[in-house]
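From the methods appendix. Each design record in this collection lists the tokenized structure first, followed by the designed amino acid sequence. Records were kept in a plain field format so they could be parsed without special tools. The example shown here is representative of the layout used throughout.

RECORD:
FOLD TOKENS (294 positions):
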């Protein structure tokens, strides 16, 4: 390498493509990191993962075997952000990650007047996010990323992966545009409405929630809420709440060393026995064992 090469600025890729697979993930892992600004999409082909970005909790479950239902999460970080990754399962986890700079439209020199307003708005907000189900076109591109032609090497392989990543990026932007288009009446579209319900649930984990109150406070009907929430997130409202409370209690055990009885209260259980049984079903170990890892 010459002195000129060393001094030359490194050119960022428009989209970084990363494909990873784990047969199992450690239930004792709590990974903390500081991540830079980015526009990111995780496509979960199998398995589940839970993590916090700043104060926002995410849980994505793509299932296994007969329950397999790939999910994708797209989000924006406009500032350096703390991520706390809680992952742990005896089941496989397979996912593809696509990462772009939040300024990618500027780097493409796209005329701002030609940009889709919904995409521009999405990119401008810290922790704007969209949970969606990838269709056959996206899954086909993922399969190509997982198994590129064996004869491709070096820069040819990188070009191949980048091209597939750009194809997915275009489809991601289409989903953002469709999900955030304004509707004729004053309500949000189904996806945006259910995201608002999810945010409401996470903000009221300490409250004594019931389905009527959730429906009233989020501007929907009980019947519509139950059906649409399950369609979008793959689980009932209160399965989601129960799981979020358990993850919050587990994090407090690992991070703060609170007592098991305090963790039970944090998770919404009046009896330690019921909490311990639910905790073990979720994480594969007793809460007292988790606390010892502090």
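DESIGN:
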């Amino acid at each position: 390498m010459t002195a000129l090469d060393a001094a030359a600025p490194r050119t960022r890729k428009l989209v970084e493509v990363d494909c990873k697979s784990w047969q199992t993930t450690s239930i004792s892992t709590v990974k903390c990191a500081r991540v830079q600004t980015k526009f990111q999409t995780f496509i979960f082909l199998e398995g589940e993962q839970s993590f916090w970005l700043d104060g926002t909790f995410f849980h994505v479950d793509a299932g296994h075997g007969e329950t397999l239902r790939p999910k994708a999460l797209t989000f924006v970080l406009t500032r350096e952000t703390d991520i706390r990754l809680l992952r742990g399962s005896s089941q496989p986890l397979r996912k593809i990650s696509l990462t772009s700079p939040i300024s990618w439209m500027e780097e493409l020199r796209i005329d701002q007047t030609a940009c889709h307003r919904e995409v521009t708005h999405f990119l401008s907000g810290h922790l704007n996010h969209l949970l969606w189900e990838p269709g056959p076109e996206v899954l086909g591109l993922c399969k190509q990323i997982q198994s590129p032609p064996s004869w491709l090497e070096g820069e040819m392989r990188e070009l191949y992966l980048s091209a597939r990543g750009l194809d997915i990026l275009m489809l991601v932007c289409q989903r953002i545009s469709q999900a955030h288009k304004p509707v004729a009446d004053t309500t949000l579209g189904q996806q945006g409405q259910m995201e608002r319900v999810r945010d409401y649930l996470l903000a009221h984990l300490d409250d004594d929630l019931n389905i009527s109150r959730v429906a009233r406070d989020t501007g929907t009907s009980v019947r519509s809420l139950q059906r649409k929430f399950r369609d979008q997130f793959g689980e009932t409202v209160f399965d989601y709440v129960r799981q979020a409370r358990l993850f919050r209690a587990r994090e407090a055990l690992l991070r703060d060393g609170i007592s098991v009885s305090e963790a039970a209260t944090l998770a919404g259980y009046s009896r330690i026995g019921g909490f311990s049984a639910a905790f073990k079903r979720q994480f594969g170990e007793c809460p007292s064992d988790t606390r010892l890892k502090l």
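APPENDIX NOTE: Residues 1-10, 183-188 have pLDDT under 50 and may be disordered.
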